[in-house]
């Protein structure tokens, strides 16, 4: 009876130990997978930082081509700096900029050219939260974010009051023709962007500001 009991225990223990080993292997694979995922995130962040530096250097080169430069550069937010309407998101969202936007902002900052925001977004709180999360909030000397039916005429009047910079010393980037048309008539050099802020739009804006009477 003792021998039979011993044999039974051994047979019962074998599959138990196999299950334990299989579970440990699965846990190890999960740890390896998690480590690879974390490494991929770090690699992507490093690649993005390197790309921002490359864009900034090229933007600085483009800025250096022109003797006449704006004193203030004003940006729209939705579909100009970032590719979405911020009012369709919550503060818990994960915002991101167009690929070349941050490098261009950094270049203007390095050159000592002031920047501002003019947005007709109805959710200024979300917009400001996103600017904070992206680490670019402090780059702007003025942020006029409110709804308006004047195609941003009120925004630019407020920016002028806040900065004292005349309209003809400003450069403006926006994705809506109505805003561009209205603000241009105020004397602001304005560029209609098609697919967000990028180096091509930057060059067009600087060239138009430097030679306002030439066709771009």
Automatic annotation (TrEMBL):
One Pfam family recorded for the sequence: Acid_PPase
InterPro entries for this protein: HAD-like_sf, HAD_sf, HAD_SF_ppase_IIIC, MDP-1_euk, MDP_1_eu_arc
Gene3D superfamilies: HAD superfamily/HAD-like (3.40.50.1000)
GO molecular function: acid phosphatase activity
Protein name (Swiss-Prot/TrEMBL): Magnesium-dependent phosphatase 1
Biological source species: Dendrobium catenatum
Taxonomic lineage of the native organism: Eukaryota, Viridiplantae, Streptophyta, Embryophyta, Tracheophyta
């Amino acid at each position: 009876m003792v021998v039979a009991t011993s044999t039974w225990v051994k047979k019962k223990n074998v599959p138990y130990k196999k299950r334990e080993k299989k579970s440990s292997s699965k846990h190890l694979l999960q740890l390896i997978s998690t480590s690879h995922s974390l490494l991929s995130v770090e690699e992507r962040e490093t690649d993005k930082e390197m790309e921002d530096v490359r864009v900034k250097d090229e933007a600085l080169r483009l800025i250096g081509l022109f003797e006449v430069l704006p004193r203030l550069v004003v940006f729209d937010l939705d579909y100009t700096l970032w590719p979405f309407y911020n009012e369709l998101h919550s503060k818990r969202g994960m915002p991101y900029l167009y690929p070349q936007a941050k490098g261009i902002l950094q270049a203007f900052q390095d050159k000592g050219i002031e920047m501002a925001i003019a947005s007709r977004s109805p959710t200024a709180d979300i917009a400001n939260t996103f600017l904070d999360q992206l680490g670019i909030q402090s780059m702007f000397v003025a942020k006029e974010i409110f709804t308006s039916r004047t195609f941003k005429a009120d925004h630019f009047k407020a920016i002028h009051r806040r900065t004292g910079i005349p309209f003809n010393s400003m450069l403006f980037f926006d994705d809506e023709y109505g805003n561009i048309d209205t603000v241009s008539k105020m004397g602001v050099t304005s560029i209609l962007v098609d697919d967000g802020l990028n180096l091509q739009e930057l060059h067009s804006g600087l060239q138009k500001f430097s030679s306002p009477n030439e066709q771009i």
